[in-house]
Amino acid sequence: MTNTSTILICLFVSFGGFLFGYDTGLISGILEMEAFKADFGPGNGAPVGASTKSLIVSILSVGTFFGALAAGQLADKLGRRWAIICSSGVFLIGVALQTAGHNLGLMLPGRIIAGFGVGLLSDLIPLYQAEAAPKHLRGTLVSTYQLAITIGILAAFGVNQGLQNVDGRASYRVPIAIQFFFGAFLAGGMFLLPDSPRNLLRLNRRADALSALCRLRSRPAHDVEIINEMAEMEQHLRFEQELGEASYMDCFRGKGYRRTMIAIWIQAFQQLTGVNFIFYYGTTFFRQAGIEQAYLTSTITGVVNVLSTFPALYMIDRMGRRKVLLMGTTIMLIGQLVVGAVGTAYPATLDPNTGAVLTSNSKAGICTIVFTCVFIYGFASTWGPGAWVVTTEIFPLRLRSKGVALATASNWFWNFVLGFTTPYIVDPDEGDLGPKIAFLWAALILAGGVFVYFLVPETKGLALEDVDELFDSGIPPWKSSAFIVSDKHNPHHDAMEFAGKQNANIENQKSEATIGA
Ligand code: BGC
After folding, report:
1. pTM here?
2. Which atom of ligand 1 is the closest one to the Cα of 24?
3. Nearest to residue 232, comparing CAs of 500, 511, 496?
4. Residue ranges covered by each domain of the chain
5. Closest ligand 1 atom, CA of 415?
6. Cα(367) to centroid of ligand 1, in Å?
7. pLDDT tens for residues 164-177?
8. Could you state a single Gene Ontology molecular function term (predicted)?
9. Given 125, 140, 168, 372, which residue has the most CB atoms within 10 angstroms?
10. 149: helix, strand or coil
11. Which atom of ligand 1 is nearest to the CA of 383?
């Protein structure tokens, strides 16, 4: 069936990813603005000191980490839709504080609170999408979340670039304040959208669940597809309710353990590819590699990141999760190995005081740019969206919100650890690893590929309800593409039974109406 309204709804909520991306791309440019340096630096136009800089950058991830952990509770208590509205509200408070603040006293709490909101959203959006999407489009629709992240990063690069030469505090306040519209737009739109039918059923609101599903699919309640899908969800929920309400600890017990580990580690390995090293520190890295147009090069990586996400939308539901992730591992590996090799063979010399490029090999510079783009292509078309898709679809409903929360927190945790430590590893006056850091990323990318090959099963095309059977089947992940759902879960059977009950209800209502008349 065509699912135009589901697609539009999932596209709309993926706007939460835009907030996430914009926040990621925003700070690096702002730190370099003159007015920002004057307010937050030591004075006389000198750059913001290292400790203040790292505090302002990394404190956001502290907020996002806790936001991601809190999202599970919020999503279960308030429902997915209200949780998204409240998270946007939290985000807006953080944005207001940052906009008002030209000192650390307001800026730091503002970044923590906005980060908390972004952390909540980074968890709630893919969760809502996975629960709202029909199974054959689930991968593609969850991937639109990643597309929105990449567009957000690029938009922030663009806004910063456009405003960097504006005089006064407006140069950094406007890019921050714009987020106010983004947050309000998301919250406002959510008022109009239905909640996740799966979650409404979980809260025993069957009638609301049915109407939410009808709105999502733009179909009437008596449509056989709707009846099928409701029956499938209800039957599965009954199994889960027999098992009782889940806690975070349940994610680490029994059958939950394997899935939680997969979700936590796929998010960790996504970060360990080194992608944010390019987005947070790309400008510095490119200069160290002898590339003078470092700012432009960063923007190019932002554009490649957006464009390369489109192939993922196409491939993820056709090739399947495993093939896409393993293909991405190979492409990223090639990209990083060449960047590392070229940077090691043709090191640039820099002025130790200003950091300006003194000598460099222009062919080596071009090669570095091209293969960094190969790496970004490998990431954005595979692991970028793929990690989010796998995370949202491997949990049973009972554990899903908490499991997704733990995995998203793992993403932010590694985001923080890498964002905080890489300057110390790379910088000439610190660890001085320079371009050789690409070899470290290559080793970690390889580890991520081995992890996927041996531990992550194929979930393409399965109803979220059937993923349980896949895990219970004991089929080794590397053979799981051949897995076929058994007949005992055949939704058609339950749908017929359910349709029979529906008809009986309608008949009862009709006869009651006749008696009443
Ligand atoms: C990652 C972010 C990253 C972005 C890059 C996302 O999937 O989780 O950390 O900045 O991709 O496009």
Report:
1. 0.81
2. 10
3. 496
4. 4-225+258-482
5. 9
6. 24
7. 778 888 888 999 99
8. carbohydrate:proton symporter activity
9. 125
10. helix
11. 7
